[in-house]
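ok so for the tutorial part 2 we go from a plain amino acid sequence to predicted structure tokens. step 1 is just haveing the sequence, like this:
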Amino acid sequence: MAGEIQGLHVNFAEIAADTTEEWYAAIPWPGTWKLVKAYLTSMTARTAHATNYVTVTLKKSTTSIAAFSTDTATTDDLVAGTPVELAITGTGTDLEFAQGTAIGIHKTDPGTGLALDGSVDMCFEQVR
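step 2 — the prediction. this is what the tokens look like for a chain of 128 residues:
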């Protein structure tokens, strides 16, 4: 039924700092769903830094649709256990997912900082 809301939760554990890692989750519900909100909750505190930062990006295939970064351009810190909202950057059908379609969670963190462990929570609204 259009307008229904569902949540998708993904835990992740990073192997090491200065890595690029990817995790995926499939949309489990029948129909077509639009990403409307996304939150990152870190188990590790991270301070904004020019070269030692973390960026988490949600992707549909190769298209970036939401992101959060602790680089000094954003001056956003991560406080352990405190959710931060990812900025939705995608538009239109880039934000729509059919049942069985994967949404990618991509993490990069150059430098020698702490590894990032945590979770991403996503809210979807059924459109069809």
